[in-house]
Design goal:
alpha/beta, 20% strand
Length: 157
C-alpha cells in the first residue's frame, strides 16, 4: 500500500517545504509516501473558473492509475477527529488497493469529472487554509494517524 498526495502547484515558501519534508520523512518509516506536484496552469486570466477546473482535471487524470482509491480533500467532505481518521485510514489500507491518492484541487476546487472519480471526500476543517498550509497539515495528519495506529506517544488524548 502506498499513500500519495497529489497537489497543483509547487510550494513557494521554503519554510512550508521544510515542514512537509519533515513529516513526509517521518511518515516514510511507516508506509511508502509521495507528494506529486502538477504544475500550475499558465495564462489563466483568459479562462473562466470552470475552464480552469476542466484543464486541471485532465492533468489530475493523467496522474491516476487503475485501482487507485481516490480521496479528495474538499471543503464539503467529511470531517473526522484524528483518531477517527486513523481508523478510517486503516480500513482503507486493508482493502487491498495499491494506492490511496489524496488530491488537493486548484484555487476553484474540483471539476465534476474528478468528483465522479473520487471514492470519498475529506474536509480538514470548516475553516479555509492556503493550499500551501493544507499540505503541511495533511501530511502531519497522515503521520499522526500512523502513530495512533501503532500506539506510539505522539498523539495525546
Amino acid at each position: 500500500m502506498k499513500l500519495s498526495l497529489l497537489v497543483i502547484g509547487k510550494t513557494t515558501d521554503r519554510h512550508v517545504e521544510t515542514l512537509i519534508e519533515n513529516y513526509a520523512q517521518r511518515l516514510g518509516h511507516y508506509v511508502p509516501f509521495s507528494m506529486d506536484v502538477i504544475p500550475e496552469l499558465r495564462n489563466t486570466k483568459a479562462l473562466t473558473a470552470e475552464q480552469q477546473k476542466a484543464q486541471e482535471a485532465e492533468l489530475i487524470k493523467k496522474q491516476l492509475q487503475t485501482g487507485d482509491h481516490v480521496v479528495l480533500l474538499d471543503e464539503h467532505g467529511v470531517e473526522r477527529r484524528s483518531i477517527e481518521f486513523a481508523s478510517w485510514l486503516q480500513k482503507r489500507m486493508n482493502t487491498g488497493a495499491r494506492r490511496i491518492v489524496f488530491i488537493v484541487g486548484g484555487p476553484y476546487g474540483f471539476d465534476p469529472s474528478i468528483h465522479k472519480l473520487a471514492k470519498e471526500e475529506i474536509s480538514l476543517s470548516q475553516m479555509t487554509f492556503s493550499h500551501q498550509l493544507i499540505r503541511v497539515l495533511f501530511v502531519e495528519q497522515l503521520y499522526r494517524a500512523h502513530t495512533i495506529l501503532r500506539g506510539e506517544p505522539y498523539h495525546h488524548e
